[in-house]
Predict the structure.
Amino acid sequence: MSSVATAQQVSEVPLSEEVRYPSDPDTVIAATLERPPSTDERLLPVVVIISGTGPWTRGGWENMRATLHAAGFATLMYDKRGLGQSTGTFVDTIPAMQRDVAAAVAFLRTRADIDHERIALMGISQGAVAAPLVASEDPAIAAVVMLSGPVGPRGELFLGILRGHLTNAGKTSEQINRVTAAVAAWMNARSEVADESETANLRKAVVDAFAEVGFPQDQAENFVAALDDEVVLSMYDVASDRALERLRMPTLAIYGSKDEVIAPYLSIEAATVALQGNPDAIVVAIPGMTHELQRATPMPSSGTAPKDGTMPVVTELVGNWLARRLGTMPRGR
């Protein structure tokens, strides 16, 4: 029997509070702080929920939130900067997301009703990159939950995912090496803020490389246009494995075996190695699950935050794991 009540067992509506807190200059984040409908604890543990790539505002995660509330946790969800009721300019890069998550933690530490020693971070996809980055610089974070979080050395994970897509497209090792070498040279030049003409030449070389290995010219141009984005560059630049190596708080990383967005086998291996020095870390692969930790469901048109389809095996695993680590007691027992 599960030690955490499921969403169906909870009939009460969590208490909800609209809150605001500052992040970067001219950026104020709008969020919803939800408390469990009843609890015996004076100070509440809280889980900050971090969405993935895309223009996400508050909402979604209904099953996960209900399970966390049933386990005695408060939850905080927020509109990304520049979206919904949050101010500022929408910038979806890893550094911007990292600053907004850190701002959420700083805000929660001002609350008299929150247990400042039991603040956990939970993110999916890009949000699962931001969570350990914040926690690696803030050892007082109580726990980290990563859902479908890409892990690997700077650039290598990105290129590994690209290699997987090219392999699925039927390209040879020689062709794959040609394309990834061109992409790496271009990305590195962009990171170093190289001369504009040099960067333009390297960009053209990537288009040519895609075309030379058999992609139509317009498709090659479209591929490169998708890569020519500050969000993509921020993902290339991040060394997520280094962040995980520094974590010593309880850490749970969950992957779906049918994830077609990232290469799960690469991230599972990299996460396992990076977390081997953490005395309370576990990496879990769930068969048949997609990137959104659902079964055979289409990918959302933008972003990666699960809606109602998050599978109970995932929500209960997260709820039970957090309840044991952060010492909450399920109601009704």
